[in-house]
């Protein structure tokens, strides 16, 4: 498998997804996917859980059905100042945080506002990746934001659901341009299925097509292997996960 980590998945807890984390892990195991991040929506998204849900992820086992579990969250970009909807006290209990625009939380405004919000989010140091940036409702200056992300070692997500065309209509061409810009500027990318049902975990057909089409370098795809992903977390200053030591050898 060229992509061995899925960094964007949801469970029933998000309010509009339909599987448990155990079901997600079982589907991943059937596919042969060795690792995924569980990233339910943070609290300002309608139907999402209270922030204690994320703080308490420390009770999750590190392996389910033989699959490595990364404890994470998809937070909402709240405003132009770069605020997100989990308190700083939760950060220590998470391994991975994606920040995304969602219309119910941040009303689409204009390119300048969206660009400033994304740059502030990157500079805050609290997020590891920017999610589904292809959404045309949230246009932004690709070069400014992606250069900032490259400078701060924040990954740019290539979202398989966005590339399917049924969600966030108008994203496909933008995703290709975002990926080309990331390649040009030497930014890291991450790959997420954005699965809201267990059978979509680890499915990257559209992402694979994009990678091939633009010849994106594997050493900049942090989801290429678990070792590569964990090395990126270390680069971000995340505390090493003892249970995953064998995966970085």
From TrEMBL:
<comment type="similarity">
    <text>Belongs to the PHP family.</text>
</comment>
<dbReference type="GO" id="GO:0016791">
    <property type="term" value="F:phosphatase activity"/>
</dbReference>
<dbReference type="InterPro" id="IPR023710">
    <property type="entry name" value="Phosphatase_YcdX_put"/>
</dbReference>
<feature type="binding site">
    <location>
        <position position="74"/>
    </location>
    <ligand>
        <name>Zn(2+) 1</name>
    </ligand>
</feature>
<feature type="binding site">
    <location>
        <position position="132"/>
    </location>
    <ligand>
        <name>Zn(2+) 3</name>
    </ligand>
</feature>
<dbReference type="InterPro" id="IPR016195">
    <property type="entry name" value="Pol/histidinol_Pase-like"/>
</dbReference>
<dbReference type="GO" id="GO:0071978">
    <property type="term" value="P:bacterial-type flagellum-dependent swarming motility"/>
</dbReference>
<feature type="binding site">
    <location>
        <position position="74"/>
    </location>
    <ligand>
        <name>Zn(2+) 3</name>
    </ligand>
</feature>
<keyword id="KW-0862">Zinc</keyword>
<feature type="binding site">
    <location>
        <position position="8"/>
    </location>
    <ligand>
        <name>Zn(2+) 1</name>
    </ligand>
</feature>
<feature type="binding site">
    <location>
        <position position="16"/>
    </location>
    <ligand>
        <name>Zn(2+) 2</name>
    </ligand>
</feature>
<dbReference type="InterPro" id="IPR004013">
    <property type="entry name" value="PHP_dom"/>
</dbReference>
<keyword id="KW-0479">Metal-binding</keyword>
<keyword id="KW-0378">Hydrolase</keyword>
<dbReference type="GO" id="GO:0008270">
    <property type="term" value="F:zinc ion binding"/>
</dbReference>
<feature type="binding site">
    <location>
        <position position="194"/>
    </location>
    <ligand>
        <name>Zn(2+) 1</name>
    </ligand>
</feature>
<feature type="binding site">
    <location>
        <position position="196"/>
    </location>
    <ligand>
        <name>Zn(2+) 2</name>
    </ligand>
</feature>
<feature type="binding site">
    <location>
        <position position="102"/>
    </location>
    <ligand>
        <name>Zn(2+) 3</name>
    </ligand>
</feature>
<dbReference type="InterPro" id="IPR050243">
    <property type="entry name" value="PHP_phosphatase"/>
</dbReference>
<feature type="domain" description="Polymerase/histidinol phosphatase N-terminal">
    <location>
        <begin position="5"/>
        <end position="79"/>
    </location>
</feature>
<feature type="binding site">
    <location>
        <position position="10"/>
    </location>
    <ligand>
        <name>Zn(2+) 1</name>
    </ligand>
</feature>
<protein>
    <submittedName>
        <fullName>Phosphatase</fullName>
    </submittedName>
</protein>
<feature type="binding site">
    <location>
        <position position="41"/>
    </location>
    <ligand>
        <name>Zn(2+) 2</name>
    </ligand>
</feature>
<dbReference type="InterPro" id="IPR003141">
    <property type="entry name" value="Pol/His_phosphatase_N"/>
</dbReference>
<dbReference type="GO" id="GO:0005829">
    <property type="term" value="C:cytosol"/>
</dbReference>
<dbReference type="Pfam" id="PF02811">
    <property type="entry name" value="PHP"/>
</dbReference>
């Amino acid at each position: 498998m060229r992509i061995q980590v899925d960094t964007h998945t949801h469970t029933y807890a998000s309010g509009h997804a339909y599987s448990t984390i155990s079901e997600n892990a079982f589907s991943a195991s059937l596919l042969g996917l060795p690792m995924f991040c569980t990233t339910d929506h943070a609290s300002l998204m309608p139907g999402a859980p209270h922030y204690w849900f994320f703080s308490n992820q420390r009770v999750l086992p590190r392996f389910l059905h033989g699959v490595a579990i990364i404890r994470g969250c998809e937070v909402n970009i709240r405003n132009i100042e770069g605020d997100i909807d989990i308190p700083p006290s939760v950060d220590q209990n998470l391994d991975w945080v994606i920040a995304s625009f969602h219309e119910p939380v941040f009303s689409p405004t204009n390119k300048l506002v969206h660009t400033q919000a994304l740059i502030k989010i990157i500079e805050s140091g609290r997020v590891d990746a920017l999610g589904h940036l292809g959404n045309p409702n949230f246009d932004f200056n690709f070069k400014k934001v992606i250069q900032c992300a490259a400078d701060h070692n924040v990954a740019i997500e290539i979202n398989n659901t966005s590339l399917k065309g049924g969600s966030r209509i108008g994203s496909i061409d933008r995703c290709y341009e975002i990926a080309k810009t990331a390649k040009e500027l030497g930014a890291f990318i991450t790959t997420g299925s954005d699965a809201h049902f267990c059978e979509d975990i680890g499915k990257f057909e559209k992402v694979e097509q994009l990678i091939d089409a633009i010849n994106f370098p594997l050493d900049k795809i942090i989801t290429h292997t678990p070792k590569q992903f964990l090395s990126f977390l270390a680069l971000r200053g995340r505390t090493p996960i003892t249970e995953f030591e064998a995966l970085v050898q």
